[in-house]
Amino acid sequence: MARVLIIDDSPTETYKLTSMLEKNGHVVMTADNGEAGIVMAQKELPDVVLMDVVMPGLNGFQATRQLSKTPETAHIPVIIVTTKDQQTDRVWGMRQGAKAYLSKPITQEVLMAAMAEVLR
């Protein structure tokens, strides 16, 4: 299955996402902020990144933009997973290079469907 990098500053959200992913056979790596997530993505080259938006320091929009604009990581699909569910947030996230935008709380079915879509 896929190697997934979760970038989220909430231990609770990271745990929930990790549980869903591992139940479905995926290998999970985690980073608790945007800067650490970018470093890990460059080092590990995961198959997909799940990105929170609201984080201290580099936020998820900024981190998504960096990953999508850097040649070494531009091929990695980013799925934004956030509580920010306004249409303007969704549009902005997609403009930063995200391949999907999911609003928390998410179900396992929604997450797996989004992952299947971006990993085609």
From TrEMBL:
Record-linked SUPFAM superfamilies: CheY-like
Pfam families linked: Response_reg (PF00072)
Keyword Phosphoprotein: yes
Gene3D superfamilies in the record: 3.40.50.2300
Domain Response regulatory: 3-119
Modification type 4-aspartylphosphate: residues: 52
Matches recorded under InterPro entries: Bact_response_regulator, CheY-like_superfamily, Sig_transdc_resp-reg_receiver
UniProt KW keywords: Phosphoprotein
Domain of life according to the entry: Bacteria
Protein name per Swiss-Prot or TrEMBL: Twitching motility two-component system response regulator PilH
Organism whose genome encodes this protein: Cellvibrio fibrivorans
